[in-house]
Amino acid sequence: MARLEILAPAGNADMLKAAVFGGADAVYLGLTGFNARRTAGNFTPEELAEAVKFCHARDVRVHVTLNTLVYDAELPQLAQAVRAVAAAGADAVIVDDLATAQLVKKIAPTLALHGSTQMSIHTPEGARELAALGYDRVILARELSLEEIRAVCAASPIECEVFVHGALCMAMSGQCMMSAFLGGRSGNRGACAGPCRLPFDATAGLRPGQPGRACHLSLKDMDHLPHLRELMDAGVASVKIEGRLRTPEYAAVCAASCRAARDGLPYDAALLRDIFSRSGFTDGYLTGKNDGTMFGVRTEADAAATKAAMPKARELFRRELARVPVDMTVAFDEEGVKLTAADRDGHKAVVYSEDAPQPAQKDQSEAVRRALSKTGGTPFVLDGLTLDAPEGVPTFLPGAAWNELRRRALDTLLDKRSVIVAHPVQAYALPGFAPRPAGGLPKLAARFETAEQVGSWDGPLVLPITQADKLPAALRSRTVLELPRAQYGRTEAQVAALLARFADAGFAGVQVNNLAQLRQLEGLSYKQYGGLGLNVTNPMAAQRLHGLGLAGLLVHVETALPAMRGIPGVTAALCYGHIPLMLTRACPLRNVHSCAGCPGGGTLRDRKGRDFTVTCTAPGGAGVRTVYNPVPLYMGDRLTEMPVDWALAYFTTESPARVCQILAQLQGQKPFDGEFTRGVYY
Questions:
Q1: Is pLDDT at 621 greater than 70 in this prediction?
Q2: Predicted TM-score of the model (pTM)
């Protein structure tokens, strides 16, 4: 792209207008039903068409979010949504699920395909893989440093988009199950309730059962506008403002500030802060200062500042932003004046004066230019003016006549620019998938966090690749090595080295947890399986992954049991485990202490007095943290209701003795011996 794109949120029609008038080059919005902000106003197909007309008339692109995980029964409606986006003439779709990507390519192949941040792409190999899958742009994870962004942009064959302002999820997007398991509202399906903004307290010394008060999972909003020039130099194509659930005033202020920062102009930083912040902003991820200063909450003072800032913010979108260059040609003859207005996209409007021009007392060139330059209230700005006045032909018209000519010409040009150009649509019949028969008993496998937990288990097992050295050689033939869901920093290179090292060591295969790992495995002889990080919830996504070489798949734990029945191939589902609710690069424990002396984890106390275990993959600050549900998922007494080939017990923080107890309960199909949850299976 010739110029850095400023991409603003549009949760509803009012917000869209504010973002456009505020200076956005593109907006992203949701079609009712299939997007990651189902609680925003969103747009019906008819409203989407009107939004595209409005935006395209003003040289603003429209990206439509279809970025949620979908179930089998929803695929026909999703296909209709893709057709509606194509019919509206939108510029791009933002997708998460591989099923959605396939539908876009099959139904409307000229629609640009953007990989949502929900796909958890954060490495050079991940960007390359999305390019190979046919995507036109990758929206990177929000946790990256400037140097990491630079490395991805340098390696990526497709455009890279990054978030530069707005809310930071505590968890890596696409890898959070907290809202689903604590409140039954899945963030991966567009209904996040934001439980991380509630009290989760890392303070030491709380009495057993004492409610937590501090909000140690609540990050400040990001603000990378001071680094916009650096991001441009890094090769970023588009910068995105988060916030479809916020106000028109917010959209206008952020878009205007971004536009000024991109152009090297000053902007009102105080207004940007006041329109919305959580005790200020953070750039901790971008600058590599991942510490306790990243955390903050929305205070009463913040809310009061926002209320006071509203009138000033509204001034930013009270009038049209003149942004569309137009060339005008004025041709005089004895009978009248012809005004032609043309834009750079090939649209042209021609209007004629109702009155003949009169002889002029002096040269009219400057007077005509002044009159035709008055484009206020329209999106147009006069760029070039040509006067065609043969010698001796009258050239005088009163100011009111010039104003009327200009108004009619620009109105006609705006109408022509507002005509929808739909994407061609191809016929496509959804593939059929035979449902699995109910009532079978899946085979049992176990995933262990450490080699010490394996004990006497004599069945198939999954183990993190970092534990491979500790496993007895005799167990390798039935062990699948699990790859990490996040590979920040040096992890991608470390994983690649381990994969090369163990390629011929006799292991049963590897479990892929990020699309980047498909490229890391090229040329290696491992049998490949899909893990939790791939978020498989429907048969089309499963079929696509099978086509990419995966021999079996772990169905996402947020998939309801009826939806599992249609997923083809060899499948597994979790039958036990303290679910990893969050995968986060920020550490909540840094609210109360530094990494120095940290044993590699701790606990968070919620407002109900429950303790959530936090672990760290690399104590000392370089790792990734996981927050686990204190109540385990359990299906041991209902294994025959799970329509999969394998039931996987997912062990994490349990002691070896506790692992043995739970495996015995699962093998005996016995009820659980404590508090448990069925998750969202039902």
A1: no
A2: 0.95
